[in-house]
Amino acid sequence: MEFKLLQANNGDAIHLRTKDEKGRFYNILIDGGTGETYSYKNKKGKSEPGELKQLIEHIKSQNEFIDLLILTHVDDDHIGGILRWFEQDADAKGLVKKVWFNSGRLIFEYFQQKEIEENLLKIKDISCSNTSIAQGVAFEDFIEDNNIWDRRIIKSGDELSISGLKFTILSPSKDKLQLLLCKWKKEYPISDTSRTSDYSSSLSDLINSDSFKEDDSIHNGSAIAFVVEKQGKNILFLSDAHPQTIIDSMVSLGYSPKNPLKVDFVKLSHHGSKSNTCIELLNLIRSDNFLISSNGSKHKLPDKRCLARIIKNKEHANLYFNYPKLMSNIFTKQDFLDYPNFSIVEASEYIKI
């Protein structure tokens, strides 16, 4: 396996690829970042391709496909790039072979509830709204109309095998899905810049004054998170999942601090938010390699407090950033002197495992 954290602004867009039984490349796209991850306008107003569009065009040129598209949840920084791709590329429907997505309608069906009328709106222009529910409806319409949706709930406890890959689903739980049985709404302004960073605090101060409060976002709680494994190599993709959900799933699988889950890489939940990674979760994971997908804009993620927990918890920690410039804003020379057990790695290319 090899994977790349695309530069997805403040979001997630991850390309994972391997070879199938016939030696053909099997491509998995996990989320699509913001709209600008696919295309954006430069200072002169000219459209430029983002890393998602570059990836899509490369896959086309190799006569390959997006064999599996996983939309973990409907927040703009995960779905926006995919919707812009679908809108601008007439070939998209033929390029995608299978989609995993827990849509609002599917969740209501799963719990045998009649869906709320506002959640059934048809969106004529899939780029017309940046609210999560409108985007989710637009995405669901597209994948259902084009018959590319593996139309089933993906939930914790599931084990799925595809092309030599084993997926162990850790989130969402049924309880987290059930919280979506409501009128969907935008949970926060997409352009909110009011949140401040904690980068001026030292690692020592953050470690010595640590406290934890879990993320309470309903959307994040519904995120699909999983371990993907092939031939003894594995990666833990946590999307924006809630830590307690992941902990409960891991404990049910027999993992404990004395018997932790051994993984080659961990993609941190919610771009390294302090509300999505706790010491209890870290005690269940044995890994040296932690991946951060964020450019630090809008919500000022990752939180340094989250990274401080990892540095305190692990004998050695390699922190991988897909926006390398962000690293110099977070850590000081004194941080490296106080805690020589961690290193920073630039993650702008494919990582093989």
Overall body shape? globular
Which blocks of ≥5 consecutive residues have pLDDT under 50?
121-131, 186-193
Q: Biggest β-sheet, characterized?
A: 8 strands, mixed
How many runs of DSSP E, i.e. beta strands? 18
Structure classification: alpha/beta
Strand order of the largest sheet: 8-9-10-11-13-15-16-17
| Terminal-residue CA separation | 6 Å
Radius of gyration: 19 Å
How much helix, percentage-wise, in residues?
25-40%
Residue share in β-strands? 15-25%
Treating each run of at least 4 consecutive H or I residues as one helix, how many helices?
Answer: 13
Q: Mean of residue pLDDT?
A: 91
In a few lines, what is going on in this structure?
The protein is an alpha/beta fold and 353 residues long. It has 13 helices and 18 strands.
Summary keywords:
six-stranded mixed sheet
Report what the structure shows.
The structure is a single chain. The protein is α/β, with parallel strands linked by helices. The chain contains 13 helices and 18 strands. It has helices spanning 51-61, 76-88, 92-95, 104-110, 132-145, 174-178, 203-208, 218-221, 243-252, 279-282, 304-313, 327-330, 333-338; strands at 2-5, 14-19, 25-30, 39-41, 47-49, 66-70, 99-100, 159-162, 165-171, 225-230, 233-237, 261-262, 265-267, 285-286, 289-292, 317-321, 342-346, 351-352. The strands form four sheets. Strands 8-9-10-11-13-15-16-17 form an eight-stranded mixed beta sheet. The protein has a six-stranded mixed beta sheet with strand order 7-6-3-2-1-18, covered by helices on one side. Strands 4-5 form a two-stranded antiparallel ribbon. The protein starts with a strand and ends with a strand. Mean pLDDT is 91; it is low at 121-131 and 186-193.
